[in-house]
Description:
Elements: H1 3-6, H2 10-30, E1 35-51, E2 54-72, E3 75-81, H3 86-101, H4 134-151, E4 155-174, E5 179-195, E6 202-210, H5 219-232, E7 242-248, H6 250-264, H7 266-270, E8 291-293, E9 316-320, E10 323-324, H8 331-337, E11 351-353, H9 360-367, E12 370-377, E13 387-398, E14 401-414, H10 415-420, E15 422-425, E16 435-436, E17 440-448
Parallel strand pairs: 7-12, 11-16
Antiparallel strand pairs: 1-2, 1-4, 2-3, 4-5, 5-6, 7-17, 8-9, 8-11, 9-10, 12-13, 13-14, 14-17, 15-17
Helix pairs in contact: 4-5
Amino acid sequence: MNDIARNDDSQQRLDRLAELSQRLLARARALGATQAEVSCSEERGLNVSVRMGEVETVESSNDRGIAVTVYFGQRKGSASTADLHESSLEATVEQACAIARYTEDDEAAGLADAELMAREFPDLDTWHPWRLDADEAVELALACEAAGREADPRVANSDGASFGSGESLSVYANSHGFIGRERETQHSLGLALIAGHGEQMQRDGWYSIGLAREDLETPVAIGRRAAERAVSRLQPRTVATGEYPVLFSAEVARSLLGHLLGAVSGGALYRKASFLLDSVGTRLFPEWLSINERPLLLHGLRSSAFDADGVATRDNPLVVDGVLHRYVLGSYSARKLGLQTTANAGGVHNLQVSANAGSLAEMARGMGRGLLVTELMGQGVNGVTGDYSRGAAGFWIEDGQVAFPVDELTIAGNLRTMFAAIEAVGSEVDPRSHIRTGPILVGRMTVAGGE
C-alpha cells in the first residue's frame, strides 16, 4: 500500500457526511415534512499560476456545503449552509420548512419515485488523489511555460501557465432511505502564449485535464503544443463570403452537441423554449450517426451510478441511427412533461458520438476546400429557433491541406439544418470533456468574411 492510500481518509469523511445527512432528514421529518432530501459535499483543492517565470498566485481551498430540501405535500422549500455547528444545521432545516409552508403547490414537486433509486454502486475509478505541495505544483507550471516559450523564437510573450488539483466528496440522501456516496478527483495543467509582435500578435494555448496524474500530458508536451498553436495563427487572412464546407476540430465540435443537449433538456422543453419540441422519433442526423450516454464508464470524466435525484443511471442511447431517441430529463421536468425521468437530473454522463471517418488530417483531405474551425466566439445561438451565428477562427483548407490561418469570420446556419448536413465525424476524440466526439464536418454553411 502506497503512502497516499495509507493516508486516505476519504471513506471516513464520507461516513461522517452520510451520518450528518441522516440527522438532517430525521429533523425534517420531526418538523412535519412529508419528504426531504439532503446534499452534503466537501472539496479540497490547490491551484497555482505563473507568468514569465514568476509565481502569480497560489491558492489552497477547503470548502463544504450542506443543502436541505423539504416537501410538505407538493410545497417545496430549500436552504443551505456551510456551518456544521448544530445550531446552524438546525436553523437550516427550520428555514427550509418555513419556506415550504409559504410556497404554492407544484404538481411536479417531490422526490423521484422510490422504485427508481439506485441500489448498486460500482467503483467507477474516479478517485485518484495527487498529494503534492505548492512548490511541486509551481514547478510543473513553470516547466510547462518554459517549454512553450523556448519552443519557437516567434513566441514573444506568455499569458501564463496554471496547474490545478482537486478532490470532491459528496453524499446525497433522501427520505426514501436512499444514500449515495461519490468521490472524485480532477487535475489540470494548461498554458496560453502570445506569438508575434505589435498588431500581428496572436494568442493560443493548450491544456490537459484528467482524473489521475497519469492522464495528463507532460508539461513539455503541453508547452510545445501551445507554442505550435500560437505560431500557426500568425499572419491570418480572411476569405470571400460564401457557402463552404465547415470542419469543426474536436475541441469545438463538442459545442454542437452542447446545443443539442440544451434543446432536448427538460427545462427548455416544458418552457417551450426549444427548436426541438416534439422531436422524439424524428430523424435529426444522418442514418449512420448515433450518440450514446455511458454513465457507468470506468474512469469517465462524468461517471456516476445515480443522478442528482438518486435515480439509477444506465447506458442509454440519445440518438439511434440519426433519430432522436429520447429527451434529457430529471424527475421534475419529466413530471412537467408527463414523461418518465431519464436519470439526467444534474446533466448527462459521458456522451459518445459514433465516428465514420479517420483523423482530422484525413478529414481535411477529404473535404478538399473549406474552413477548419479551431475557435468559436460569441453566443449567437437562438435556442427557440435554432438559428446559429458565431464568430470563428481557424484555417483555410485548399486541395486538402492547410493553406493559411483565418480569423474575423462569422459562420451561420440553423442547427436543425446543420445536424442533417453532417457528413463525417472523425475518430480523433478530444478526451478533455464528458462529451466525447471527434471532429465534425458540416457539408455547407454560410461563411462571412471580409471580402
